[in-house]
Design brief:
Elements: E1 2-8, H1 15-23, E2 27-32, E3 46-53, H2 58-70, E4 75-80, H3 84-90, E5 96-101, H4 105-132, E6 136-140, E7 146-149, H5 152-157, H6 161-165, H7 169-172, H8 175-193, E8 202-208, E9 214-225, E10 231-240, H9 242-257, E11 261-266, E12 271-275, H10 278-281, H11 293-297, H12 305-318, E13 322-329, E14 335-346, E15 353-362, H13 364-386, E16 390-394, E17 400-403, H14 407-411, H15 415-419, H16 429-445, E18 457-463, E19 469-480, E20 486-495, H17 497-519, E21 524-527, E22 533-536, H18 538-544, H19 548-551, H20 556-559, E23 564-565, H21 581-592, E24 596-606, E25 612-624, E26 631-638, H22 640-689, H23 698-729, E27 736-740, H24 741-758, E28 762-766, E29 772-776, H25 777-793, E30 800-807, E31 811-818, H26 825-828, H27 840-845, H28 852-862, E32 866-871, E33 877-884
Parallel strand pairs: 1-2, 1-3, 3-4, 4-5, 28-30
Antiparallel strand pairs: 6-7, 6-10, 8-9, 9-10, 11-12, 11-15, 13-14, 14-15, 16-17, 16-20, 18-19, 19-20, 21-22, 21-26, 23-24, 24-25, 25-26, 27-29, 30-31, 31-33, 32-33
Helix pairs in contact: 2-3, 22-23, 23-28, 24-25, 25-28
Length: about 900
């Protein structure tokens, strides 16, 4: 019989409890806690503490648990209205029980008898463990000497109990294992002397058996100490884990071979060991998911996590096996459906739950099927009740078994009214005859299990309640039972009035488009995806001189000879050549769905008399998007006449260019011939001015000066014409050399300065660096001189002319800027055209031929440079030219 020790806190009245214990024949005693630590009586009875506590006695609960734990005895609380704090305090404690007030004497008696039974059972289990357990239990001192081994040591090592206790720890295990154990035990003893107590250490060691072989064993040592932390001895357990390790390895391999994930969860540390690749299941790299409960919970769907954690919390309390279904989120954010089944793992000594072994199965595919089925069922319900189409079932006698409510919207009759109608009255006369014909044909051909191939879609005109009719389309499907017998027709009826109207409008539009197609002046062909001719307009038939019925159904290559590209990418010989423009453009349009605009080519056709006709054509395509049967329109525009006109234009241009070259050659010859007499005229006039033939009167001097000036002007004109002729004839040669740019500019300055002084024009030359360039020095001087002389010519008295020079890595840029009369925008475009001048009045005011700038431009371009002008009428001009820095 169990003996109860009542723990009395604050001298409470325990009369009722004492009386109840007496009535149920329980031995008890009262221990007043405030008198000091209770003394455990020596008794043959099993002992248990009892304590009555209230809602505000949490400190008493904690103190009572500490007393019971230090005495290694169970405790029974009698508590009124236990709250969350009470349960939180006792949830992780062993050997703690409670009875909730009010309680009955039978309940109290049953609880104490249950505790007595458990204590008796524990005593029997201890005896059985020490004598019959497979693990070897031992007692060992700090030096490693043994005083006791259980009989199972012989089964593990081959040594008898007597042989085993005579061996020191150093003789029992390998050297490596001994060093490891001694280090751990020494550390443990050191900490123990400081009052620090750890959980019993567990070692994996190799022990030496009697046959000199070694096996892998698990060694657990538990220190026995007195109240003052004085070490007495170790009590330990030695377990053979060789087989377990092999089994674990086999289990791990097996776990890798199945699709499910198996795990073991340690409730004390929340560590989780996964047997199977959880990282791979969730799309992570190996090791990204940590082996603990927190890491696992991070991947549970946030909406499911509270429910799952509630299941886990309940499991911690009651330890019952559980099933849970929840969603996991993989690395890509996709949802995985898991179902988990967990079983408790009990501590081998205390019998309390210490963890879980569980299986997680991925049921995503199953859930998707279930969800799809639910959606399908829901969709059918919504369709049947809310769709515009009418869903119906009818048996072989024509009796309606079901019709959806939408029939009232279609025909004005309620479902009840439709049920009362015969099948003949549900459809108009002509449609009725056709429907009944199909009905009879079906049953005439029907055989058990074999559905005849009769039409399943009918267009039927049905009468409405208001006397009108509505055109409908019926889709009919026979439903058979498992044995192949006919059960009923399942059908859908749809209002096609609008569709028939649209079809009629489309037909009218098609006829109109066909008329436009036929009347189009450009030859056109309609092709399908197989490049087969489906239609050809009148213009194309007229060009080919063929009849339409002979053209339809032909391949495009049979209509036209290969349309050989002007670029040479068609073969020009094979009617089926896919490289020819016609076929190639058609295929490309079907593939890319993009239109092609005017590809030019040549082809030949035969007239009815067999005569070959050469054509120049432009091929264009237009893609027509039609579901499942796209088309293209190919236009073949005959441009033979246009090409002939273009050829005539080209010939005229060539003739004009030849005439221009002839003119240039003539001018060059004439210029050369004119130079000889001019040189004599200029020379003799200068001699007359210098009085080489005697003194002349003032009037004679003036006439000689006019002769000299006019001769020089005519010579400049002849030189310009000669230069222009050379350029146009491509005969102007450059004599390249490296020279100092500043030297040439200063030379031109010296020549041009008297003209500037005469008009009181200020010349500004911005030269601050030495520049050399590889070019034709004479032509360079000609360019610069021309721009400078023009600037002075078109700048009024008292004006300014500025020369700006800039250099970068690739080019030399020289700008001549004046504040003269300027040039309007519309005239700047023609400024570099030969013989062009701003206008007739300017030509009269400022003499010149209009050749200078055109020659300058061509010389600059021969050097690989550019020339430009920026000007505004009345505000002056800026002429700039650039020359590249060429290498010799």
């Amino acid at each position: 019989m169990i003996k109860a020790i009542i723990l009395d806190f604050a001298k409470k009245n325990h009369d009722r409890l004492e009386g109840e214990l007496k009535e149920i024949h329980q031995v008890f005693s009262i221990c007043h806690v405030d008198d000091g630590k209770p003394k455990i009586p020596e008794s043959g009875n099993n002992l248990v503490f009892i304590s009555r506590v209230g809602n505000n006695d949490l400190k008493y609960v904690e103190e009572a648990i500490e007393i019971a734990s230090s005495s290694n005895l169970p405790i029974l609380f009698i508590v009124s209205n236990p709250d969350d704090l009470f349960f939180k305090t006792i949830e992780n404690e062993e050997n703690v029980w409670y009875v909730k007030e009010p309680y009955s004497k039978i309940e109290l008696k049953h609880t104490l008898e249950h505790l007595d039974s458990l204590l008796e059972k524990n005593d029997d289990q201890f005896r059985l463990i020490t004598e019959n357990v497979n693990d070897a239990i031992f007692v060992m001192d700090m030096k490693g000497d043994f005083s006791y081994f259980s009989p199972s040591i012989e089964k593990i090592s081959g040594f008898t109990q007597d042989e085993a206790v005579k061996k020191n720890l150093s003789e029992w295990i390998t050297k490596e294992s001994y060093v490891y154990c001694v280090d751990m035990i020494t550390h443990f003893a050191t900490e123990l002397s400081k009052g620090v107590v750890y959980d019993p250490p567990v070692f994996e060691i190799e022990i030496i058996c009697k046959n000199s072989q070694t096996i892998l064993a698990e060694l657990t040592v538990n220190p026995i100490i007195d109240d003052n932390f004085n070490f007495k001895h170790f009590i330990g357990v030695l377990r053979d884990i060789n087989s377990r390790r092999k089994a674990e390895e086999r289990f791990r391999i097996a776990a890798q071979c199945v699709s499910d994930l198996i795990y073991e969860w340690d409730m004390k540390t929340d560590q989780m060991e996964w047997f199977g690749d959880i990282d791979k299941h969730l799309g992570y790299e190996q090791g990204e998911i940590k082996n603990n409960l927190d890491s696992w919970s991070e991947h549970v769907h946030p909406e499911d996590l509270p429910r799952v954690m509630k299941t886990i919390d309940a499991y911690r309390l009651n330890g019952e096996s559980f099933d849970a279904e929840y969603r996991m989120i993989n690395k890509d954010g996709k949802i995985k459906y898991w179902i988990e089944h967990g079983l408790p793992i009990y501590h081998r000594d205390t019998g309390k739950i210490q963890g879980t072994i569980g299986v997680c199965s991925d049921i995503t595919e199953q859930k998707e099927i279930e969800n799809a089925l639910k959606r399908s069922e829901e969709m059918f319900r919504l369709i049947a009740e809310n769709a515009n189409d009418v869903i119906w079932m009818i048996n072989e006698k024509g009796k309606l078994l079901y019709v959806s409510p939408s029939v009232q919207k279609l025909r004005g009759y309620s479902p009840e009214e439709i049920y009362e109608q015969d099948i003949e009255n549900r459809i108009a006369n002509e449609s009725g005859l056709q429907a009944m014909k199909q009905w009879n044909e079906f049953f005439r051909k029907f055989k058990k299990g074999v559905v005849p191939d009769t039409p399943r879609k009918l267009e039927v005109e049905q009468p409405c309640k208001d006397g009108s009719t509505v055109w409908t389309e019926m889709h009919i499907n026979p439903v058979l039972d498992d044995e192949g017998n006919f059960r009923y027709f399942l059908g859908i009826t749809r209002d096609i009035s609008e569709r028939r109207k649209n079809e009629q409008e489309l037909m009218e539009q098609k006829n109109m488009l066909d008329s436009i197609f036929d009347l189009a002046p450009i030859p056109m062909v309609l092709l399908n995806e197989e490049i087969i001719v489906e239609n050809m307009n009148n213009a194309c038939l007229e060009m080919l001189q063929r009849k339409k019925e002979n053209m339809l159904g032909l391949k495009a290559g049979e209509v036209f000879d290969c349309i050989n590209s002007e670029k040479g990418d068609g073969c020009g010989t094979n009617k089926e050549c896919i490289k020819c423009i016609f076929n190639d453009s058609a295929i490309e349009t079907f593939v890319t769905k993009k239109n092609i605009h005017k590809r030019e080519g040549k082809t030949t056709i035969l007239d009815p008399a067999g005569k070959t006709i050469q054509l120049n054509v432009l091929v264009s395509t237009a893609y027509i998007e039609i579901p499942d049967e796209p088309k293209i329109v190919v236009s073949v525009e005959d441009i033979t006449a246009r090409k002939m006109a273009e050829q005539a234009t080209i010939s005229s241009k060539l003739e004009a260019e030849q005439a221009n070259r002839t003119k240039s050659e003539f001018l060059a010859t004439m210029s050369h011939e004119l130079r000889t007499p001019l040189n004599a005229i200029i020379g003799y006039s200068q001699m007359l001015q210098e009085s080489n033939f005697g003194n002349m009167s003032e009037k004679q001097q003036r006439f000689a000066s006019h002769i000299s000036t006019s001769g020089k002007h005519l010579l400049e004109l002849i030189n310009d014409i000669l230069d222009l002729s050379k350029v146009e004839a491509g005969k102007m040669d450059l004599y390249m050399e490296t020279f100092d740019v500043n030297e040439v500019i200063k030379n031109v300055y010296n020549i041009i300065d008297p003209l500037a002084v005469k008009k009181n024009i200020e010349l500004n030359f911005e030269i601050d660096q030495d520049i050399s360039i590889y070019a034709d020095k004479i032509r360079f001087k000609q360019i610069f001189y021309n721009l400078m002389s023009n600037a002075i010519k078109f700048t009024p008295n008292g004006g300014h002319v500025t020369v700006d020079i800039s250099v970068n890595e690739s080019f030399l840029k020289i700008s001549v800027i004046d504040d003269g009369i300027g040039i309007s925008k519309d005239k700047q475009i023609k400024l570099f055209t030969p013989f062009y001048q701003a206008d007739s009045s300017t030509a009269r005011t400022y003499q010149g031929t209009g050749l200078g700038l055109s020659i300058v431009k061509k010389i600059v371009e021969l050097h690989g440079g550019t020339i430009s002008v920026e000007s505004e009428e009345g505000k002056g001009s800026n002429f700039s030219f650039t020359l590249p820095f060429l290498k010799e």
